[in-house]
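Chapter summary example.
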Amino acid sequence: MGLWTWISKLREPQCCVDGEAEARSSQAEFTFQAVAIGLLIGCLLCFTNLYFGLQTGWISMMSLQSALIGFLLSKMLPTPLSPQEIIVVQTTAVATGTMPLAAGFVGILPALGWEPPIHLSWLAAIGWSCSVAFFGVFLSPPIRKQVIIKEQLAFPSGTATAQLISVLHRMPPPDTTLRRRAGYRAIDTEDLIHPTAIMDEPENHQEAAAEDNIDEREVVQQEGWEDLLMSFLASGAMTLAAYFFPIVFAIPLFGKYLAREWLWSFTPSLSYVGQGIIMGFPTTLSMNLGMLVGWGILSPLSKYSGWAPGPVGDMSTGARGWILWISLAIMCADSLVSLLPVVYEYCIKLVAWYRPTNSSDDTETHEDLEVESADRLVPTKWVIYGLIGSICAGTILVWIVFGNDGIKPWATLIGFMMGGLLSILGVRALGETDLNPVSGLGKISQLLFAWIQPGNVVANIIAGGVAEAGAQQAGDLMQDLKTGHLIRASPRAQFYGQLIGSSLSIIVSATAYTLYQRAYTIPGPSFPAPTAYVWLSLARLLRDGQLPQNSASYMVLFAIIFGVIAGVKVIAAQRNHPYTKWIPSGVAFAIGFLNTPSFSLARLIGGIVEYMYHKRISKSGGANIRLIVIASGFVLGEGVISVISLVLKTYGVGVASCWGCSGGVCAGCPA
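The structure predicted for these 671 residues follows.
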């Protein structure tokens, strides 16, 4: 059935026994308005994620924020979008906005530009993006059937987005009750999740919840646009001010000596504050603990001990390059331990499949829990043809872009196969914990290819990128599919949105990255691309087998410590302990090593603001959603206005004044 034929069928009234099913069948979900708004939001997110990804290595899928902004934009239309259309907006925006990470523009390509120096042209970047852009999209429908329909995993962010949409559209709250499972239960990161897990609430509690929902909806409708616009303009104004006066984003809060020699400065970026609000206080706290250990203890230790004699910021001989290895060990240990329950559960299921079962068990096992009709699902034939086509086309494109000196076609095929297997593990971990361990999954692929194509740094990085792209994309799209499942949106409409968003994002991401390459040195002072060093460092290690002096013992020590911490967190999650979220996150802790203190401090401010709002102000009604609106404006403001800075840099418009710098304090300072 063709795309537009299916749309016209959705518009036709159909006779159904169930009134709700009739209403949903007769209502168009995949509409031009929904796709256009989703692409608009997604393009803004694409530029924003590329900008922040090259700066700090941290990218957000922004699904909840996309739904909220889409709702605000739809209020300007003659007929506001339905909840199901908002799902299409969110899905399209996320598919468009996360391509900089999926296609490796913030990690893989900068790493290849370092060693060996491979700089892709705009057309080559398009080809590389096409090779990895659709594999995860076609992988999503069968994974959805398993983890959302059969196993009913939580996917906390997707569930929270569904609850937000239900509040905004005056819908009954979605049924988020979960069956008890053998593995560990979800770590709740959203306060909205807890009430829906209780089946029998007192009537007065339900009335209070309804009143809160009305308050939140009215606040968003009356003040949402104003909050979004003001926060956007404030963040954008600071970004332009920092371009012309760099000291604005490099305040030597701890003195000019520490700022110049040890990189201890403060960036009062409203976008980083907004990211901290979105991340939450526990995550930003873990990040800043990592900053204190990495930059406050290990960096001076490696410098004064002679293990890293170069300038502190040098990634090859300085302390920053030395502590990078510690962060790599932490990320790998945390990711692998977090995956153990997933692997254990799969092993149990494999054993169960080979056990003889009686007829009653067989009936229960094969019970179809799908709530959507066949015309709203993605046909299996499309999935099979799409997976085969994306793998074959991707293998050919990788060979065309990088040639025989890069990675062999048969090795690329293995990379796609690895990506499929790792996607399943990553999606399950995401569904349980709301964290997709793509960094660890990519490293697993690198370890495999160190054995398959030993000594080939390019092949190692590309293979890891292919595997990580599938895992990251499938995970992000699964959060959207969980939201759609709870709101009863059409999976096929979401699938179309994913394809269109990914297709457009190929051009947008490649164009934006090419412009940044022309205007800035990547990696460089303004855009250090820290994840690129992680990819390259592991590839070098697997090729040469050499580590910086005395780094191995600290890598083992921190890997053991955070392996134990990750294990404790898994056990605490199994027991649904209320303090689970306060156990440090290994990945966030390691990010504190990768980024200079200036990035982490502002995010901590955002985390504190989020914590205080939830404790004191949000009880007045509407503050939860209002805070999300403000944080979204902060993030989008700098990300979008950075395009103006990029144009100014391209045409040679420089800074207006270096006042307050005194040389070497600001990023890219010529002094």
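To summarize the output: The longest helix spans residues 203-244.
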